[in-house]
Amino acid sequence: MDVGTIIAGLLTLAILSFLYRDNIVYKFAESLLIGVSIGYVLVITWSNTLMDLLFEPLFDGDVLLVIPLTLGLFMLGRFHPKTVSLSRISIAVMIGSGAGVAIPTMMYHRTIKQLSASIAPLVSLDGAFNITGLVVLVGLISTLTYFYFSREHKGAVGKVAKLGTYFLMVFFGTTFGYTVMSRMSTFIGRMEFLLTDFLKLTQ
Prior knowledge:
Distance between the termini: 14 Å
Number of helices: 6
Number of strands: 0
Structural class: mainly alpha
Strand content: under 5%
Helix content: over 70%
């Protein structure tokens, strides 16, 4: 068994010790994880972002990179009251460019694609009935009816709105189930590592 496996196994047990109660071993492992993660991010940012994308091309003659370098230095102005106004320029550029990139992307993926999926034809070109499209259409109409508050939810409107709550509960349930299963998958992976690689109890 190599040293890396031993360290990983001990740290895994240290994290799992929190299931018993909060203790100093768990706090040590938690602090170590946070510290290593921050150190890893700093190294990756320095080598893959600053060096590869900024300093090396800048020294090779790409003078336009002086602009992002200057804006980055302006961000350090937040640490001094007299230069804090310079950081607002960088923040404004970052927010503006980020919104300019994000808004069309989010409009396409979260609005246009959702709309196109909601208006799928109920009958295909070969004459087959689209059951999935019907379920999507009923779910869309009933869910929108649930959020329609201009009329009291009574009679037919109330029944459709109640059907919308069922679709909402199915959505929230599947989302919660997916979250739980992803966490369980991580836990099972750790258990498999402990029993197979660390403790050698299974093959």
